[in-house]
Amino acid sequence: MNWQLVPQFAVTGLLAGGPLALMALGIVLIFKSSYIFNFAQGQLLLLGTLFTWWLTVEQGLPLGLAIVIAIIASAILGLVIERLALRPMTGQPLLAIILMTLALGQFLQGSALLLFGGTQRNFPQIFSAAKPYKIVTPFLFNDKPIIIILKQNLVWSFVVAVLGVAIISAFFQFTKTGLAMRGASEDHELAQSIGLRINRIFGISWAMAGMVATVGGILLATSSGLDLSLSLVVLSAFPAVLLGGLESIPGALVGGLIIGFSSGLVNASKVQIIRKSAEIVPYVLLLIILVIRPEGIFGQKRIERV
Amino acid sequence: MTVLRPAGEFDESYATDMATIRRGWQWIALFGLIAGVYLLPFYASQSTVALVNRIAISIIAVQGLNLLTGYTGQISLGQAAFMTVGGYISALLAIHFGWSFLITLPVAALGAGVIGLFFGLPSLRVKGFYLAMSTLAAQFIIPWFTRNAFPELLNGAQGVNVPVPVIFGIEFNTPQKYLYLTITFLIITTILASNAARSRMGRAFVAVRDNDVAAELMGISPFKYKLQAFFLAAVFAGVAGALSAHHLRHINSESFNLNDSVLLLGMLILGGMGTNLGPFLGAAAVELIIEFATIAGPIVSAWIPSNSAGGVQALRPLLFGLALMLFLIFEPKGLAHRWQLIKAAWRLRPFAR
Description:
heterodimer; A: 306 residues; mainly alpha; ABC transporter involved in vitamin B12 uptake, BtuC; two-stranded antiparallel ribbon; 12 helices; 5% strand; B: 353 residues; two-stranded antiparallel sheet; 16 helices; 72% helix
């Protein structure tokens, strides 16, 4: 361990967990209402971000307007996907539904490449790249205090992500639609029998997942550029979802932060092979959590009957 | 689907009843087909032979996946990772010990099986979707391992060059010659897979798939059979990986990636899960779709000038994803089921189905 680097990497990792949590949130939203684990979340994110880029860079719209239009467009995309691809799968076995979202992911990835091409692009900067924040910590190294340097976009991405989680938690807690969605997640048939429109609830959750994905994608693209591999980032959000618990919205946040934090901490190691393990740390954590506590930290344990 | 035999065809002995191939003409047709495939190099172009090689290797991997996912009902997103294991083991044994391909391949298969067993361990506690996630972890951890561990042996992200297999003094260095290897191993794995499916073990697989709690109550240990299924699936993947590595003569951590795992699952769905015919039809269909994308790619690129280079790369996932989605909606039981329906309709003709 390089102890003087630990605070820096720990905080950077924790903040990087913010966008991860936002992606995990998109997956949780869909799973909560419809028991579908959306493997295509990464491609939703990619398409939303590419569309934003196209609107603002190619078409010259102001960035704020472009983001709003892209968020609306991705909500519509979510609705279309739900109607055309997932609605026919209602009542099908789990494998078929998992494969449907995987196939959807392949289809959307191909479409993104066909429509926008595979070149690396610069996404417009939303947060100033100059003037990073400096935090002086009380820890001393060689009699000098350790200073943590944080890029602005890292901090603000984190803030936006936490805000997003807070807004959606509040939506589920206080609005009628949110309550209906929570009710539907308990039991689909029961919810229908008390007059909740299941189809509409599935649609809303897909639309929200699309919007969340686009916001997360924009946050990622503004700090690390935009190309087709953006969709792969979501692969490290899957462990975050399972870590937090599949049905839990606070769980998505906590899971994302834990994954970000531990990947960051590994970077402070002196041993090269451990530093390089940052990319598989989420999956090692995933294997551990699956064996110790499969339902995740905040998830519901299911009891099975024959 | 009940078995519908042509009118007047009866099994007159227990042996005929149990046989996979029951009639004399079926044996003739089978040998005709095998001979036709073995003689491909004499009448087909090199690209066709290469395509048949690819299809055969995919079929072997899908057959393993079929035992695990089709018969035992355990979803695996890591089949390609076990191909990586098989490919590397066979390559390293051939490079460093100079062993013959006929020895490295079984060792590679067993090695992949052991790794598969390890990643099947979570099936003790979790199932369904959670198990899919643990196999997804295999798909990340194994390639990472080959990229970063033992750099002097595995050569990092660059991967290793794999020697040409030499058996009895024959160098299998062209697609035409390699065809004999792939088809021979395909025949062996087909016999193994179709017999495994109807053994005591195969029946237990199906019981675990249909309801593992009920199976346990009937005295079938789900954990034991799930692990056996994971082992077998990885063994088949190891054979396919080793065959592919020696064919392409190079292997690295990206040779078999997550997309390949999804592709293999897609082949299984398109072909039909839990059938012996499924892997053949599915692998052929998907490889043909990919081949079609390779041909159609440049044409599409010409239509969309902003994207002149990526037509093929874009069309492959696009067409595969679209085909898989359409199959899941309209033909979830796959091509094998459709083939059964066609046979039944033919036999019942001219009466209604």
